């Protein structure tokens, strides 16, 4: 099932996406949550209920219109994993990590499809990174690897935009500052529920910059799978419904190219992941 957040005249609504049309799920069934985090917390136990509500409204032609936003507009946590593709570690001349390399972005960096990535004047070398994003449904702490997928509501497409001059060009390496400027975490267009993705470690992933393919790989190259990541990080802090995890990027990033390729005013990025859709964003220099 495809779920999204839509800005409507009645406010932001959690919707089901059916043949490119939108069903307001709470309007279809008042017992359902009207926000995405609340809806995700009801998965997977209420998935059939949500599907039935969407099908009834669709059959009756009860669709709504509005602006498609990031599926989770303000996640409680935006967790990111670095150097998690074998082929990307090779291109970065970095050793294969023994455990997940973790950092974070602020929720204020999240934007949705068709929104604009804004390049701050203070950032001179801004890169793109296509990423599979895990969306947490059921919360928990000290989650076992065997139980990890029971905590996944679904998946979406992400772009871990990165200011390399801040991330690695500043004293000590300022990963947080390089990763979390406003608009540097596009996600969307939808959350595809976990039942529709048979194996998140077997999906084609690519990024196009102005129509040219820059990254083209598969999540088969992930060093640490979704279950390993969840088990690792939940040893230290609780995961909550609506938290998102960027799982790393494949090779082809601009920093590793010769000559390097960095984002500039007027660029358009398109991240595509098999079964999850295309996330498209334009770029503007501030």
Compact summary:
This protein is of the alpha+beta class and 286 residues long. Helix content is 16%, strand content 34%.
Average pLDDT rating = 95
How many strands in all? 18
State the low-pLDDT regions, or none. none
Count of the separate structural domains: 2
Distance between the termini: 37 Å
Within the CATH hierarchy, at the fold level, what is the topology of the largest domain?
A: Fumarylacetoacetate hydrolase, domain 2
Radius of gyration: 18 Å
Family: Belongs to the FAH family.
Domain Fumarylacetoacetase-like C-terminal: 77-283
Keywords: Lyase, Metal-binding
InterPro entries: FAH, Fumarylacetoacetase-like_C, Fumarylacetoacetase_C_sf
Describe what this molecule looks like in 3D.
This protein has 286 residues and is an alpha+beta fold. The protein folds into two domains: 2-68, no CATH class; 78-285, Fumarylacetoacetase-like, C-terminal domain (Fumarylacetoacetate hydrolase, domain 2, Alpha-Beta Complex). The chain is built from seven helices and 18 strands. The protein has helices spanning 25-28, 36-41, 47-59, 86-91, 164-167, 175-179, 226-233, and strands at 2-8, 11-18, 21-24, 67-68, 78-82, 101-105, 110-111, 116-119, 126-127, 130-136, 152-159, 162-163, 185-193, 204-209, 212-218, 244-246, 268-273, 277-285. The strands form three sheets. Strands 1, 2, 3, 4, 5, 6, 7, 10, 11, 13 and 16 form an eleven-stranded mixed sheet that branches. The protein is globular and about 55 Å long.
């Amino acid at each position: 099932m495809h779920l999204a957040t839509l800005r409507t005249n009645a406010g932001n609504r959690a919707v089901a996406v059916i043949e490119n049309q939108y069903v307001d799920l709470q309007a279809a069934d008042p017992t359902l949550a009207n926000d995405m985090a609340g809806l995700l917390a009801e998965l997977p136990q209420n998935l059939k209920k949500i599907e039935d509500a969407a099908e009834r409204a669709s059959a009756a032609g009860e669709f709504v219109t509005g602006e498609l936003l990031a599926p989770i507009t303000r996640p409680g946590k935006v967790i990111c994993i670095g150097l998690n593709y074998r082929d990307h570690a090779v291109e970065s001349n970095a050793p294969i990590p023994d455990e997940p390399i973790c950092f974070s972005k602020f929720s204020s960096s999240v934007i949705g499809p068709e929104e604009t990535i804004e390049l701050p004047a203070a950032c001179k070398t801004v890169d793109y990174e296509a990423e599979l994003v895990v969306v947490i449904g059921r919360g928990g702490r000290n989650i076992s690897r065997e139980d990890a997928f029971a905590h996944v509501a679904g998946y979406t497409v992400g772009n871990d935009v990165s200011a390399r001059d801040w991330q690695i060009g500043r004293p000590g390496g300022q990963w947080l500052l390089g990763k979390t400027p406003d608009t540097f975490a596009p996600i969307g267009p939808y959350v595809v529920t976990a039942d529709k993705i048979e194996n998140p470690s077997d999906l084609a992933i690519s990024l196009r910059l102005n129509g040219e393919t820059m990254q083209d790989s598969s999540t088969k190259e992930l060093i640490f799978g979704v279950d390993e990541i969840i088990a690792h990080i939940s040893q230290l802090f609780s995961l909550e419904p609506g938290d998102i995890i960027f799982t790393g990027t494949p090779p082809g990033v601009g920093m590793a190219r010769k000559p390097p390729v960095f984002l500039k005013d007027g660029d358009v990025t398109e991240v595509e992941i098999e079964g999850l859709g295309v996330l498209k964003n334009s770029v503007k220099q501030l």
